Amino acid sequence: MKWWALGLALMFAFPVFAQFDGNTMRHKRSDGYVWPTDSLVLKKLDQWRDLKYGVIFHWGLYTVPGTLESWVLCGEDLDWIENFRRKDLNYEDYKRWYWSQKDSLNPTQFDPAKWADLMQKGGMKYMVFTTKHHEGFCMFDTKETDFSIMNGPFGKDPRANVAKHVFDAFRNKGFMIGAYFSKPDWHSEYYWWPFWPTRDRNVNYDVDRHPERWEKFCQFTYNQIGELTNGDYGNIDILWLDGGQVAPKFKQDIHMDKIAAMARKNQPGLIVVDRTVKGEFENYQTPEGEVPNKQLDIPWETCYSMNGWGWRKEGTYKSSKLILATLIEVVAKGGNFLLGVGPTAQGTIDDEAADRVLTIGKWLDKNGKAIYGTVNAKKYNEGNVWFTQAKDGKTMYAMYALKETDPEVPAVIEWTGNVPAKKKVTLLSTGKRVKCEVDGEHVKVYLPQGVNRSESLAFSFTVK
């Protein structure tokens, strides 16, 4: 999915994931968030920040063999790429084999209404769908290339323009709609020119020596984003751009000012997320698979995969306990949480992914008040206990998040500060008062018999 770096340096108060190093699969942090000045964008950002929990779908050619998404095409000598690549093919033959998966992607069981129903039950409030990953294969009806799902075995199906059907299904459920789009396109001859070898993730020719070819790529990208935002796909709330090396600092200036102006003319108030490229077009920041070590006051989102980004033939899913604990921590630190779900090549959500989605959804059904629409609490953490508060500043929430190795929630939960008024604390899962003792700033909450202590718990109270 992403532009990997040596690791997240999580010691600064304001992150931007702009630098990268191919040796690992992480982004670094740096300062430099720029608040938007467009009032419509600010309004939509506020709406997005209230939602807290979303889903991102990676679906493309990589789904057919169930392998690492796109990166196996990249000519970089890295373990996390090599481990997924077939050893019986040389590099050029491998690329041809990979791209030939277009003739096998035939998701006859694709039913976006079922996706939307599942994610709504899972408690998600917004979605991001991969319209094109770095491989260049388009999951929408583009006129700029024939390398799309419209020109394969599924092309005659009335559901073939899958991006449109996914957006419509989720919009019908009230979701905020996001379009993922990869700025680099490794299939385009204007990015990876067949005349030259493809040594790494970057454009494989000297842009200064061949400016006319680069401008053709810029126009190609502009046109495709125009297709996605011109109204044919309905209202789009978020343009989620990936590919941090396609930026002026790396001599790959794609003219984001023109792209953003055009897209916002088509979609007023559009949130633009030019991931890892700090500045005015990164309206919120996106630590990948990681959580900043401190609470932040800027718009940000942890994007988090369950088992790789796309569907994998092999691998281990993260547990519901871990996913939920991460969601709680992210929200208490002021962020949103975007969970990755990879549909299968048949167009379905597999049982393991669905189980985790529904498990977290059931928890949110009982405890969602502590998550949705909350804002930062001044004191937001003590051990396993995380705090949020309602916008009125009166109601606070305490969540005991079970870590992966924790067997259960303790019978007595303790913290200092955030003292409940009149010692009144309500367990959200039951709606009933629980015993609370206060000694100065020290708080003890006693769980009654019969409470399920094998899952994370949430409480509400007013503060003095």
Structure description:
The longest helix has 19 residues, at 211-229. The protein has an eight-stranded antiparallel β-sheet, covered by helices on one side. The chain has a seven-stranded parallel β-sheet with strand order 5-4-3-2-1-7-6, with helices on both faces. It is an alpha/beta fold and 464 residues long. It has helices at residues 39-51, 79-82, 91-99, 112-121, 162-172, 211-229, 256-266, 320-332, 351-367, and strands at residues 53-57, 126-132, 176-182, 238-242, 271-274, 301-305, 336-341, 375-382, 385-389, 395-400, 412-416, 425-427, 432-439, 442-446, 457-462. Helix content is 23%, strand content 18%.
What is this entry, summarized?
The chain contains nine helices and 15 strands. The chain has 464 residues and is an alpha/beta fold.
Identify the notable features of this structure and list them briefly.
globular; eight-stranded antiparallel β-sheet; single chain; seven-stranded parallel β-sheet; disordered N terminus; 464 residues; alpha/beta
Poorly predicted runs of 5 or more residues = 1-30
Count of individual beta strands: 15
In DSSP terms (H or I, runs of 4 or more residues), the helix count works out at 9
What overall form do the CA principal axes indicate? globular
